[in-house]
Amino acid sequence: MLFLHKSNLKNRAMAKSPITINDLARELNVAPSTVSRALNNSPKISDLTKQKIVKKAAELGYNLNMVASSLSRSRTNTIGVVIPFLNNFFYSEVVNGIEELAFNKGYRILIAQTRNSFDKEKEILRTMSATRVDGIIACLTTETTNTDHLKILSANDIPLVLFDRVRFDFPCRKVIIDNYSAMQQSVAHLARSGYKKIAHLGGPITCNISSEHAKAFKETLKREGLPLLTQFHLSTDLTEEDIMEAIKIWLTSRLKPDAIITATSYAALVVSKLIKEQKLSIPEDIALSSLTSEPALQFVEPQITSVALPGRDTGKTSMDYLLNEIEHKEQKSDTTIKPYQLIIRNSSFRNK
């Protein structure tokens, strides 16, 4: 069992004084040889002990170059990929795009999911930094509101490319979707199809995607000459509980929306089910549209209008940018905006 104790190592790390194997050994109450073997991935050390030592080394900013050539800055040909959820269609397509290009270039990928937890995101990035991946491609969580935890990557010369959910205040390359235009076109389509009371079920406003959606929603309603009713514009965590609570309020109130735009395809599927449970008809009573897409939207009745996002292309572009940084030291901080496609289906047209 490892016993941790307080020391002045954190102050030393902040002062940029190098942390040594002996320092780590004292911090963890183990022998220096144990630390060395763990960082060299020796089979004589248990996986649990290795994990604890690597975690502590990462927390203190220990440079693993000082231990073994296997963990040195020489290429490992491994790319870290950090996504919110593995079972999300868009993210799985992004990973497919990354993997396709990575495989062709002789790299393997290490995938980790944060499940939208900021604490988990920090832990994953610390571990990937400690295990010396050649670069990282990441989509940040909806909880991520600062970039302090990304600085360890810069300090260890590990290139980073952010996609989809990004922080514009951190200097790295970014690949995003044209979220403003996606919402703008979705609102305009519903308005020109005759819907007047359009509602938006959005995500956390701290997320760059949600804030772009919110801005476009308000401005497009104004351009189309439609009212913005505050009760029809909700920011939520997009959990099933949040979605059900919001929709039940809308559907049981005297003033109901006649069209709903959801931030995700999962939310659209939940909303579709709830509308039908209230004995209302889609699209005659309420139209439905989603700002993301997945195959399941084609297999409900009626099929749901959605925005198709270029997941595979986003992954390929992100990987291409990362390879340029790894192999050619091409350091840039620009943002690439990817197009989308509004796929109009039966859920957003009233029968004449």
Descriptive overview:
The protein has 352 residues and is α/β, with parallel strands linked by helices. It folds into 3 domains: 9-70, 434 Repressor (Amino-terminal Domain) (Orthogonal Bundle); 75-177 and 311-339, 3-Layer(aba) Sandwich (Rossmann fold), CATH 3.40.50.2300; 179-309 and 342-348, Rossmann fold, CATH 3.40.50. Helix content is 41%, strand content 15%. It has 12 helices and 12 strands. It has a 6-stranded parallel beta sheet, sandwiched between helices. Strand 8, helix 11 and strand 9 form a beta-alpha-beta unit. The longest helix is centred in the last third of the chain and has 18 residues, at 311-328. The protein is elongated. The model is unreliable at 1-16 and 65-73 (pLDDT under 50).
Summarize this, please?
The protein has 3 domains: 9-70, 434 Repressor (Amino-terminal Domain), CATH 1.10.260.40; 75-177 and 311-339, Response regulator (Rossmann fold); 179-309 and 342-348, Response regulator (Rossmann fold), CATH 3.40.50.2300.
β-strand amount: 5-15%
Q: What is the number of E strands? A: 12
Mean pLDDT: 88
The radius of gyration over CA amounts to 24 Å
Helix content: 40-55%
Sequence stretches where pLDDT stays below 50 over 5 or more residues: 1-16, 65-73
Q: Quaternary arrangement of the chains shown?
A: single chain
Overview features:
352 residues; alpha/beta; 434 Repressor (Amino-terminal Domain); Rossmann fold; six-stranded parallel beta sheet; six-stranded mixed beta sheet; 12 helices; 12 strands; 41% helix; disordered N terminus
